[in-house]
Batch of 2 targets.
Target 1
Amino acid sequence: MDDCLFCKIVRGEIPSRNVFEDDEIFAFHDINPARPVHLLVIPKRHITSLANVSESDAPVLGRILAVANQLASENGSPDGFRLIINTGRIGGQEVPHLHAHIVGGSVPVGPMLKRI
Ligand code: 5GP
Ligand code: ZN
């Protein structure tokens, strides 16, 4: 995906504060953190959103979940964190490359959602 922002980050064409990578996934600090710890974990291969996954994506999705606790602990959120995957218009997804937000720090993240 030539024009995808997060594909460009994976390729190193846009600078990012990287914290982890392996052959399948890439993790970096969110540019506009909502909490003291705010990381993004993405598949290196372009997947638009959770609305676009298939059975063959299960390993990379599992990998994102499997490393989340390690990344949170290593980056200042050792006592828990919240993982959020915004999906599509209703989910408020702004960047169309699947990404999991890891948010945390030393104070609780707060209620899961604002009630409406
Ligand atoms: P979404 O709303 O799509 O779930 O979240 C997109 C996230 O990407 C936002 O939290 C936003 O701050 C972050 N973001 C947008 N552009 C960049 C960028 O160029 N670099 C980094 N590191 N994060 C970005
Ligand atoms: Zn992409």
Target 2
Amino acid sequence: MTARVIDGKEVAEDVVATVKQATAELKAKTGTVPGIAVVIVGEDPASQVYVRSKGKKASDCGFHSETFELPAETSEADLLARVEALNADPAIHGILVQLPLPRHIDEDKVVQAIAPEKDVDGFHYINVGKLGTGAIAEAFVPCTPAGSMVLIRRALGTGDLSGLTAVVVGRSNIVGKPMANLLLAANATVTIAHSRTRDLPALCRTADILVAAVGRPEMIAGDWVKPGACVIDVGINRIDAPEKGEGKTRLVGDVAYAGAAEIAGSITPVPGGVGPMTIAMLMANTLASACRAAGVEPPSY
Ligand code: NDP
């Protein structure tokens, strides 16, 4: 079998097109313009690239977008004051503090200071709790697992995963655990694997849906994949690519793609799979926040 390639870029464009249209409708109906504030502290070049692309995507969607580039020496108190001001600003529906923060700032304290109803990253305990108790329609779900779930629904043609087994490799708070909760809420029978799991290959072979969120290049071999499975590769790993020339690198996922694609039913590539979905879901969450504030039903994807 050769797997169907799940085109994350195409799905992400479709999500953004829906967000754009719903934003125009929300504005016309209620006068509400979704507003997003992105806060970055320090000059980490990778973070600056992410922040710029988030700002650009927000403008493309028709959002009001504000970016706060604060110096690396910003104190925790000043950052908390900035978050408080944004919490109180009615023009802002989504607040995103770009992580990591400089070492002198307590990241968790800052994340928990964001008003839960503006926490479009879905990291506040209130949102984690809502997701964990199945109150998904009221929660903000972290963008990467939310985007992975959209890909799964579209690949399988259904949001009801009754009778299907899912294995999530990785138990981080930003990917593995919320992913497992989403799959559970969709009626899959879910197992979370991690570095202490025994016989991971055998466990993976039981999965109708296999989600890899490990951060280890191509760790999941083709023969760990159940024939016909839906494979979602969240991993983004940069490895040396001497075949492209001296000092060159390339991106690979956590799944050994070529082997897995021969066995799986559908599979996300890296790059071009889960990656583009993350920013699209950030826009979807911000729109949802604005819709909730205006008492309008947000779109589904
Ligand atoms: P973390 O490092 O926080 O978590 C990795 C998880 O993998 C941990 O639970 C760890 O287990 C588990 N793990 C590590 N080694 C093994 C092993 N040998 N066998 C089984 N499990 C193992 O990573 P993240 O969740 O933040 O990210 C995972 C990957 O996803 C990374 O490649 C990251 O770059 C990518 N990512 C991609 C995003 C996107 O937009 N597409 C967004 C976010 C992340 P334990 O808990 O026991 O240590």
